[in-house]
Write a structure and sequence with these properties.
There is one protein chain. By secondary structure, the chain is α/β, with parallel strands linked by helices. It has one domain (3-226): Rossmann fold. It is built from six helices and nine strands, in the order βαβββαβαββαβαβα. It has helices at 13-24, 83-104, 127-140, 166-185, 193-206, 215-221, and strands spanning 3-8, 28-35, 46-50, 69-72, 109-113, 146-150, 154-156, 190-192, 212-213. The strands form two sheets. A seven-stranded parallel β-sheet has the order 3-2-1-4-5-6-9, with helices on both faces. Strands 7-8 form a two-stranded parallel ribbon. β7, α4 and β8 form a beta-alpha-beta unit. α1 (13-24) crosses α5 (193-206) and α2 (83-104) packs parallel to α3 (127-140). The chain starts with a strand and ends in a 6-residue tail after the last helix.
Amino acid sequence: MALKVIVTGATGMIGKGVLWECLDHPEISEVLSIGRRPVGVQNPKLRELLHPDFSDFESVSEQLQGYDACYACMGVSAAGLEEEEYKKLTYDYTLALAQTLYGLNPDMTFIYVSGQGTDSTEKGRQMWARVKGKTENDLLKMGFKQAFVFRPGGIIPKRGVQPSSKLYRVLINNLGWLLRLIKKMSPNAIVDTTQIGQAMIKLSTSGYPKEIIHPSDINGLVPAANS
C-alpha cells in the first residue's frame, strides 16, 4: 500500500534529509511538507502547506486528513531561550500538531525527532532535556496506532543537505572528517540523514518493538553501507 506522509521541519537538516528519502521511496505516493517557508524542492510527489502559526493546526485540518504517517522533524536549539519560550517552540507546537492529527488520523504512525540525553523523568536539571522528555511522554501516550521518538546523536548530513545551524555547519565543514572517522570506528555513535529518513519509513511500514529509537536501532534498521 502506498503511503501518504507529512514532514515538518523540512527546511532544517534532519527534515530536509527525511524529505529527500520520502520523495525517492517507491512506497510513498505523496508528501505534505508543513512549514513557514518553502523548502525549495520541486517534485511531483510534494505538496507544500505554508502555515505561519504552529500553535494552531485546526484551521488547516481539512488539508491534513487521510495521511498514514507524520515525521515531525521541526526543532530549535535551547541556547539563549528561557524555558517558557523553549517549551512553546518544542512542546506546544509539536503537541498542537499531534493532537490535530490524532483527531483526524488515529491509525497513523507519528514519529518525533528528539535528542540524545532527553530526560524521560521530566525532573532533571537540564531544561531542554525535561521539555523534550515531556514532549516524548505525552506523544507516546496519546493513542496513535504507532508512535516513536528518535534520539539521534551525532548526525552526518547527506545528499547535499546543509545544517541550518551556523555553528553545526562550521563543525561539519571543518570536522566532518572526524564524524566520519568516529562512525567508521564506532558505527552506533553516529547516524546520517539518509539513515534517519529510511528508518522512519521502515518503521511506518513494518513497525518496531521499541518506541524510543537510538542510533544503534537506526544503524540496525538501515546499515550505513546502504545509505
